[in-house]
Amino acid sequence: MMFEALFFWHKLCKVRYKDSNLGLNARLNEWILMAEQISTKRLHLISNSKSGKGAGGSIAEIAQRVCDQNGWQLINHEIPDASEFDKIIDATVAAALSDGGTVVAAGGDGTIRAVAEKVQSKNITFAAIPCGTFNFFARTHSIPQDPEQAFRVALNGERRAVRLGEFNGRIFLINASFGLYAKAIREREANTKRWGRNQMVVIISTVISLLKGHRLMTIDMKADGVPKRIQTSMIFIGNNSLQLRDLSMNVAKCMKRDLLAVVMMKPLSLWQTFGLIFRGLRKALQHDEALDNFCVDSLKITTKKRQQMVALDGEIFKMTSPFQVDALPAALQLMKPTEQQKLEALELDRI
């Protein structure tokens, strides 16, 4: 409040001396308008209408209703074409820096990742509205799956600093991977375009891709300064305790220490791969001998094949080795639910 008062006084002084011929009423009107502009809270919305649940199309209407009820101004940054996505994110972030507004990303984990990448490490409040297939990011941070309740968290929740992961300068919220897992994601995207984006299609497609396998990669790795050389068909770097806990992986403990979890698949036969998938479906991968895993703050990876397809939160990027991976604690200022909002969400789930 002190900052707003000083800023308002500075504006008043500028108006006062800008034109001494202005009448008192005109001056008062300008002062009132500026006071309204300073006090108005703004919500900058970016939404993906093609998200997993198909809820993106009605998101703007829900946002407008919640903003009206709470006295906020909604600024909907529409995306007319996918090619304009990055440009619109940049414009939205610039607007939020200018007016102190909250940036809200509505969509799946991939959409939320893309917006968070531009917001992180800036003094901007960020909020997420889950509209995807799995919504690991929102679920991890107890953000309601119901869009209207999620918008209420965006407006009236608690701002908390959360950890991100970084892979060669690109941000990830959930995981980063290359090799077999990234190949499975590429094939999954092709199958969901053909058969529809739902969890069953995703699971079946992923299982088939894992069974088809991937060539072994020779990798030089330096984890927290310790070098090693390994052979693996997959490197998976996790930043989401919920996803890792769902698979009963003991590296979920890394998240409690603000570290990233690294999971590597050992060379396996077809039958060994089938057994690994079966144990994964049964959520019984804890201490699995087919996997190596450890926690890291910083990781450098060098592959013989320089160009690799890397998956970040389900989105594929072409990147060049060597790869630098880092944990970024407290990099994103996220709106999370208050204890009261958590209780209200539980009551709604019971209805």
Q: What features would you highlight for this structure?
A:
351 residues; Rossmann fold; ten-stranded mixed sheet; six-stranded antiparallel sheet; disordered N terminus
Question: What this model shows, in words?
Answer:
This protein is of the alpha+beta class and about 350 residues long. It has two domains: about 40-170 and about 330-350, Probable inorganic polyphosphate/atp-NAD kinase, domain 1 (Rossmann fold, 3-Layer(aba) Sandwich), CATH 3.40.50.10330; about 175-310, Tumour Suppressor Smad4, CATH 2.60.200. Helix content is about 45%, strand content about 30%. It contains 13 helices and 16 strands. The strands form two sheets. Strands 1, 2, 3, 4, 5, 6, 8, 9, 13 and 16 form a ten-stranded mixed beta sheet that branches. β14 (about 305-310) and β15 (about 315-320) form a beta hairpin. The longest helix has 17 residues, at about 1-20. The radius of gyration is 23 Å and the shape is globular. Mean pLDDT is about 80; it is low at about 1-10 and about 15-20.
Would you spell out the secondary-structure blueprint of this structure?
Blueprint: H1 2-18, H2 24-39, E1 41-47, H3 56-70, E2 72-76, H4 85-99, E3 102-107, H5 109-119, E4 125-130, H6 136-140, H7 147-156, E5 158-167, E6 170-172, E7 175-179, H8 180-195, H9 199-212, E8 217-223, E9 226-232, E10 234-238, H10 241-246, H11 253-256, E11 260-265, H12 270-281, E12 291-296, E13 298-303, E14 307-312, E15 315-320, E16 323-336, H13 339-350
Parallel strand pairs: 1-2, 1-3, 3-4, 4-16
Antiparallel strand pairs: 5-6, 5-16, 7-10, 7-14, 8-9, 8-13, 10-11, 11-12, 13-16, 14-15
Helix pairs in contact: 1-2, 3-7, 4-5, 8-9, 9-12
